[in-house]
Design a protein that fits this description.
Blueprint lengths: L8 E5 L11 H15 L3 E5 L15 E3 L5 H11 L3 E3 L4 H13 L2 H4 L3 E2 L4 H8 L1 H10 L7 E4 L2 H10 L5 E5 L9 E3 L2 H14 L5 E5 L5 E9 L5 E9 L12 E3 L6 H18 L4 E9 L6 E7 L4 H10 L3 H9 L26 E7 L20 E7 L2 H11 L16 H10 L7 H10 L4 H8 L3 H19 L5 H9 L4 H8 L3 H10 L5 E4 L13 E5 L13 E5 L10 H14 L4 E6 L14 E4 L4 H14 L2 E5 L5 H4 L2 H6 L9 H8 L1 H11 L6 E4 L2 H11 L3 E4 L10 E3 L2 H12 L11 E5 L5 E9 L4 E9 L12 E3 L6 H18 L3 E10 L2 E8 L6 H8 L3 H9 L4 H7 L16 E7 L25 E7 L2 H13 L7 E5 L9 H9 L3 E4 L1 H9 L5 E2 L15 H6 L5 E4 L8 H12 L4 E2 L2 H15 L8 H21 L1
Parallel strand pairs: 1-2, 1-4, 2-3, 4-5, 18-21, 19-20, 19-22, 20-21, 34-35, 34-37, 35-36, 37-38
Antiparallel strand pairs: 6-9, 7-8, 7-9, 10-11, 10-13, 11-12, 12-15, 13-14, 15-16, 17-18, 23-26, 24-25, 24-26, 27-28, 27-30, 28-29, 29-32, 30-31, 32-33
Helix pairs in contact: 1-10, 1-11, 5-6, 6-9, 13-14, 14-16, 15-16, 16-17, 18-19, 20-30, 24-25, 25-28, 26-27, 32-37
């Protein structure tokens, strides 16, 4: 069937902020869908609260609403835009739940908006556990024996009905396994089911018989209106059932199924997608197979584009989201051409002649006390993917792509002895992020495949592959000489030069020289969807130590852009945004070449750049890509400043090897990172910085802190996301920090000296993004943090334009930024953090690279900074960019009183990280970044913008109810006015004894409640923690005391986070909350698109220019 003629406009709902379980794979799929729909002549209206995505760029959709994804806001947008249809299947669980909210409230019927991609019945059938069970059974397949429960009493009854523990708990309508888990006893059941009932949109959980230890598989399927169905990809989890698929190492295609088993999964999958009724899109179905009997169970289905869909798309080259969007507007699979071959339709199933491995990346080190065990609740923050001609090659490439110390197979030091091997076998029984490396070390110590299978239930074939790697490592280590044959075999199995150097006891450069002397270099193969049956038109490459390369010669000069690798806290989608913008900006004059290993991102889409290399971002792998591209044609240079710390850390070595680095030089990067060099820059510019020092030993650190004076800010060299950064208030705290840092891999001084700075308490923190071309500065944006200094800029709410800075102070910020950019030697982007205290502007740090605030500033100001930066790196000047229209004539140094206000709010993943006994880790924010994503509130004034940011990040602020207040002594004076206003707005105030006394003396009625440490009262009065847990409290204000977590404060914050209540930990945020609540009382949110804001901005500028001419 051709394109439907009755669809003139479609509303697409995005997935909102990046959270664990729902990351930038939905930015990738949503961006693809918007492009396809516009290509078909359909007007696209997009709603997404996330400013960091490519998806919310004003040129991706016709009308882009960076607004909260709530029923109220969506209704207002539908009322204003009147779309013909709503496409909810490309924005993850957020979009699906939002669409179901609109269905249930009758909004879609009222406005005659059709649900496309999947209808409400199909969504319910896939998401409602009971309905799905009936469907699977109608298809002649099995589900695990189960029972639905809606109360805790029903949960306990269900366990009895299923024959006792262990049982698997799965909530309905959640993503990333939130609220799920395995209960081994009644205590576990109470904890997990309590969380699961709270996490479910419908307050129901499914309790299933345990199928722990079974093999787990996924199928990605697509189906159209004509009943054409294709299996796009099969994916196998290396970890057996019990670890969330997002946290498991996975492989595509499935490698350990027999043909008969694979055909049975296909048959069940196609029968289920038909019965559910998905007929205009894709879906993901998960299976469990009993390795002993071959019994197959259907675990669950997602009737939408899922996290695995991005992996399947990148693994096969089959663009699932793009095709799903076309199916949703009327096409059938046989009418849609395959982009990569150009000669086959989408109804041809992809065929793989290579192996793909995905490895997750975790961030447990950011959450002290978090339980590191992997369960059915997803905890990974990112992932890397690699492609190879064999499983071992792809696995080793994927593991080094993770870019984290201790995450690759190694043969350092003596092999584990018998006792250590026994201990390793015991440790791998429990899945953790180190499980694969521990398995390899156990193999090294002599553990057999049988012993390891008994401990882990990982398929013996995978364990045998690890044994094979060990045998090759032995061969390399024991060979009398490193012959071409020995070296070639090791390289074909994915060994890096680094690993081989360690095995031979020589330097990495020595291995490279030997390899090159033998003529041993990787060739680059193409992902073509059809195992080379048809010619591929799209240069989407992966390396292999094979015979012939498929890199085509070119005449145009190329620019190589290094991506940011797997998402992690501190280095996420914001950096991918800048890399994509660079590829788009440079495409007119250069052949753009992207190197990255993250399957979730837009940058690894095969049509974003002219060539894509899916490769690890290590020195060895990047150099080989450079040499391959140099052989193909001229290379102008490489861009390393847009992908965060990963490519930045390679810059100096690449330059030393002769690679031309475009833009800011590695020497300039070092001048900003090296504290002594940076101190010289500051001195020459006459700019003040807080008292600071460096230390290369614990003794030096203690002496430096004593000289500077506490409190001090301590951090390692060359980090991103404030990794290892802490505020220390007394010598004991510093000793504790040094002990913990010393226990990390490499110790406290692994990357260079520790940096110790005087911490400026009560300062206003200011963030600046700017462009510099060597002579002229363009001030992109000046952001004022809502919280005071001390909270990492990635976690702090911030506002643009700044709320309390005068034009004179902004001019001073501009002058200081220009002096820094000039002193460091920036050519492109620079981010500077200042602290304003007692009218002195201190420089905290300068980063001569793209920052995580670049997308936010670009959306708020309408100026695409990353595109301009790429052009400056390629030799353009700011003056020429102003002439060509890439930059406006005036920068952020000139304030426009009518500009809308943008508030960035961080989204934090504390709910996912619990201690082994089930308590949430402490939620106090500090200088080490912990947020996974961000949202933007955008409106005509600060109160409304802040209210929108809270609605987007946390579901909004309560307009009434009970407020609990407990603050440290230094904050008691500052809270009086905001709490008095909240009491006037109708809130009931509860407080700890000391805070209640201060409030009552100031005429604010406050009821004292008991602290956790005080226990229950004589007459059974409950503690504050019990009140929060029983849903008596609607909002919590708790400012922490000094160093570390105090027991009472920690318990209060953990209980509030667990109960899903807003938790305010700074006085500044409390003041903003009061303004936001007052704004909410003035009526519902008003909505405007970025395009409307942009048109207004241009009209104001033109009006101002005309007035100047008349004058």
């Amino acid at each position: 069937m051709p394109l439907r003629s009755d669809l003139r406009s479609v509303l697409v709902i995005g997935s909102g902020p990046i959270v664990i379980g729902q990351a930038c794979e939905f930015d990738y799929s949503g961006t693809q869908a918007c492009r396809v729909l516009r290509d078909e002549g359909i007007r696209v209206i997009l709603v997404n609260s996330n400013p960091a995505t490519i998806m919310t760029d004003p040129d991706i959709a016709d009308a882009t609403y960076v607004e909260p994804i709530t029923t109220e806001v969506l209704t207002a947008i539908i009322d204003k835009e009147r779309p013909d249809a709503l496409l909810p299947t490309l924005g993850g669980q957020t979009a699906l739940n939002a669409a179901m909210g609109l269905v249930e409230t009758g909004v879609l019927d009222d406005y005659d908006v059709e649900l496309i991609g999947a209808d409400a019945a199909a969504i319910n059938a896939g998401e409602d556990r009971e309905e799905f069970k009936r469907i699977v059974e109608r298809c002649g397949a099995e589900v695990a024996r189960s029972a639905i429960a809606r109360t805790m009493a029903e949960c306990y009854q269900a366990v009895e009905a299923l024959g006792g523990y262990p049982v698997v708990v799965r909530p309905s309508f959640t993503m990333g396994g939130l609220g799920s888990g395995i209960a081994y006893d009644a205590e576990d059941l109470g904890r997990i089911c309590g969380q699961g009932l709270a996490a479910s949109r419908t307050a129901e959980v499914l309790l299933e018989e345990s199928i722990l230890g079974w093999k787990e598989y996924e199928l990605e399927l697509m189906r159209d209106k004509a009943d054409n169905a294709v299996v796009v990809c099969s994916i196998e989890n290396i970890d057996p059932v019990g670890v969330h698929t997002g946290d498991s190492v996975t492989v595509a295609p499935a490698l350990t199924l027999t043909d008969r088993e694979m055909q049975r999964l296909r048959d069940i999958g196609i029968a289920v997608i038909r019965e559910v009724g998905v007929d205009t899109g894709g879906c993901n179905i998960q299976f469990a197979v009993d390795p002993a009997t071959g019994r197959i169970i259907v675990i669950e289905m997602n009737p939408r584009v899922s996290r695995s869909s991005a992996l399947a798309s990148k693994a096969t080259g089959f663009p699932i989201a793009k095709i799903a969007a076309r199916l949703a507007v009327g096409y059938t699979l046989d009418e849609i051409p395959n982009d990569i071959t150009g000669s086959t339709p989408a109804s041809f199933e992809p065929t793989l002649d290579y192996v793909v491995v995905k490895v997750p990346r975790f961030a447990f080190e950011k959450f002290r006390g978090a339980d590191p065990r992997l369960t059915t609740t997803m905890k990974s923050v990112g992932e890397a993917m690699a492609i190879g001609r064999s499983f071992t090659e792809a696995l080793q490439k994927a593991m080094r792509s993770i870019d984290k110390t201790g995450m690759v197979f190694h043969w350092d030091g003596p092999a584990p002895d018998a006792a250590a091997t026994t201990s390793l076998i015991e440790s791998v029984r429990v899945p953790t992020e180190h499980r694969l490396v521990d398995l390899q070390q156990a193999v090294r110590g002599g553990a057999s495949v049988e012993e390891l299978f008994a401990a882990t239930k990982i398929d013996p074939w995978f364990l045998d592959q690890i044994l094979l790697l060990h045998e090759i490592a032995d061969e390399v280590a024991e060979a009398p000489a490193l012959t071409p044959q020995v070296l070639a075999e090791a390289k074909r199995h994915g060994f890096s030069d680094c690993q081989l150097a360690a095995l031979r006891g020589v330097g990495e450069d020595t291995i490279r020289e030997i390899r090159h002397a033998y003529g041993l270099r990787p060739v680059y193969k193409t992902v073509d969807t059809c195992a080379a049956e048809f010619a591929a038109r799209t240069p989407y490459h992966y390396s292999s130590y094979d015979l012939e390369t498929e890199v085509v010669p070119r005449r145009r000069e190329a620019v190589i852009i290094l991506g940011s690798g797997p998402n992690r806290i501190g280095q996420g989608i914001e950096f991918d945004y800048s890399c994509v913008h660079a590829a788009i900006a440079l495409a007119d004059r250069y052949e753009t070449v992207m190197v990255n290993c993250n399957p979730e991102t837009v940058s690894t889409d095969y049509d974003v750049s002219d060539r894509l290399y899916f490769e690890p971002l290590t020195y060895e792998d990047v150099m080989e890509v450079y040499e391959a591209e140099r052989a193909a044609g001229p290379v102008a240079g490489m861009i390393v400043q847009l992908g965060g710390q990963t490519p930045l850390s390679l810059a100096a070595r690449l330059e030393d090897a002769g690679v031309p680095i475009l833009g800011t030089s590695p020497e300039a990067i070092d001048a900003a990172e090296d504290r002594q060099l940076f101190g010289i820059v500051l001195d020459e510019a006459g700019l003040p910085a807080p008292a600071h020092s460096t230390a290369r030993s614990d003794e030096q650190a203690m002496a430096a802190a004593a000289e500077i004076g506490f409190p001090v800010l301590v951090r390692p060299s060359y980090v991103l996301g404030g990794r290892g950064m802490e505020i220390v208030y007394q010598p004991g705290g510093l000793i504790d920090y040094l002990n913990r840092a010393g226990a990390e891999p490499g110790g406290a001084y692994a990357n260079g000296p520790l940096l110790i700075d005087r911490f400026l308490d009560d300062a206003i923190e200011i963030d600046v993004d700017a462009l510099y071309d060597g002579s002229e500065l363009f001030l992109g944006g000046v952001m004022e943090h809502i919280e005071e200094a001390g909270i990492h800029s990635g976690d702090s709410a911030c506002v643009l334009p700044p709320m309390t800075l005068s034009d004179a102070e902004i001019a001073r910020v501009r002058r200081c930024t220009q002096m820094l950019a000039d002193g460091v030697g920036v050519r492109g982007l620079i981010n500077v953090q200042f602290a304003l205290m007692s009218d002195t502007l201190y420089v905290i740090e300068a980063n001569p690279r793209a920052s995580r605030t670049v997308p936010f500033v670009s959306k708020a100001t309408g100026v695409q900074l990353a595109k301009a930066a790429a052009l400056i790196m390629a030799g353009e000047s700011i003056a020429s960019l102003k002439s060509s229209g890439h930059l406006p004539q005036e920068d952020a140094g000139v304030t426009d009183p009518y500009d809308p206000i943008a508030v960035k709010e961080a989204v934090l993943p504390f709910k996912r990280f619990r201690t082994p006994d089930g308590r949430i880790v402490d939620t106090v924010l500090g200088p080490e970044m912990r947020s996974t994503g961000e949202v933007m509130g955008y409106d005509i004034d600060f109160p409304r913008a802040f209210a929108k940011s809270q609605a987007s990040a946390y579901g909004g602020l309560p307009g009434e109810g009970t407020l609990f207040v407990s603050v440290t002594d230094r904050d008691k004076r500052a809270i009086i006015l905001p709490v008095a206003r909240l009491a006037e707005l109708g809130f009931t105030i509860l407080a700890t004894t000391g805070t209640a006394q201060v409030l009552r003396r100031n005429g604010i009625p406050a009821t004292p409640v008991r602290k956790l440490s005080e226990g229950r009262g004589e007459h059974g009065e409950r503690t504050i923690v019990e009140l929060i847990e029983s849903d008596t409290i609607d909002m919590v204000v708790n400012t922490p005391k000094g160093q570390g977590a105090r027991a009472d404060g920690y318990a209060i914050r953990a209980a509030a986070t667990s109960a899903g209540r807003p938790i305010i930990t700074t006085v500044q945020e409390l003041q903003a909350v009061v303004q936001a609540l007052e704004a909410q009382l003035r009526g519902p949110f008003r909505v405007r698109s970025l395009q409307e804001h942009g048109t207004d901005r241009i009209a104001r500028l033109q009006g101002a220019a005309k007035r100047e001419v008349r004058l």
